[in-house]
Amino acid sequence: MAEAAHGGVTATTEAHGGAAEHHADPTALFLDPTGWVSLAMAVFLLILLVKGVPALIGAMLDKQIAAILTRLDEAKALREEAERLRDDYARRIANVEVETKAMVESARAEADALVVKAQADADALIARRARMAEDKIAAAERQALAEVRATAADAATRAAGAIIAANHGADADKPLVDRTIAGLSRLN
After folding, report:
1. Which are the contacts of 54, defined by CB distance < 8 A and separation ≥ 6?
2. Looking at the DSSP assignment, which residues form a beta bridge with residue 6?
3. Out of 31, 44, 109, 112, which could bridge 35 as a Cys pair, Cβ 3.0 to 4.6 Å?
4. Which residues, including other chains, have CB under 8 Å from residue 35's CB and lie 6 or more apart?
């Protein structure tokens, strides 16, 4: 059956040889199909309430809340641990910087001390070498002076011997020897 409405006129067509039916009033218990669906839904919800579904849903939600709280506590603990580690590493870095500055200052002080010691050692070495050189020069001067004296004495002895040999002979030596002997007898 098919009905068509056009401009306030209703037309009914019969299909498959049956008469046209017309539903105007609600059916059993004065409920139409929408009412029956609403009633069925209300009964279903009432059954769910009676059977403890809200408690079951609440328990599931409580379990989820507990799991979320556990994860939040774990995240909080991890964050606190990360903050502790960050603070620890910040302290370590600060300590390393202080230690590094102290090491640099110590190294500078040691280097300065080594430079001062090396300068003093170099000055002492220079002074010692200068004294050694002066001593060698003085020794060389003494040796040269001794050699000059020896050479001069040798030359004087030769010259005296040559002069004596040239000016004195056996005839000239006799009066000299006699005078000397005479001078010796006066001393006694």
Report:
1. 48
2. 9
3. 31
4. 26
Tokens of 178: 């006699």
Measured from the Cβ of residue 36, the count of other Cβ atoms closer than 10 Å reads: 14
Name the maximum alpha-carbon separation found in the chain. Answer: 209
Residue count of the chain, please give it: 188
Q: What is the pTM of this model?
A: 0.36
Residue 126 is encoded by which pair of tokens? 């220079």
Q: Which two tokens stand for residue 41?
A: 């839904």
CB 18 within 8 Å of CB 1: yes
Q: How many CB atoms lie within 10 A of CB 188?
A: 4
pLDDT, tens digit, 9 for 90 and up, residues 46-59 = 887 777 777 888 88
Q: How far is CA 160 from CA 128, 151, 168, 170, in A?
A: 46, 14, 11, 17
Amino acid at 94: A
CA distance 165 to 152: 19
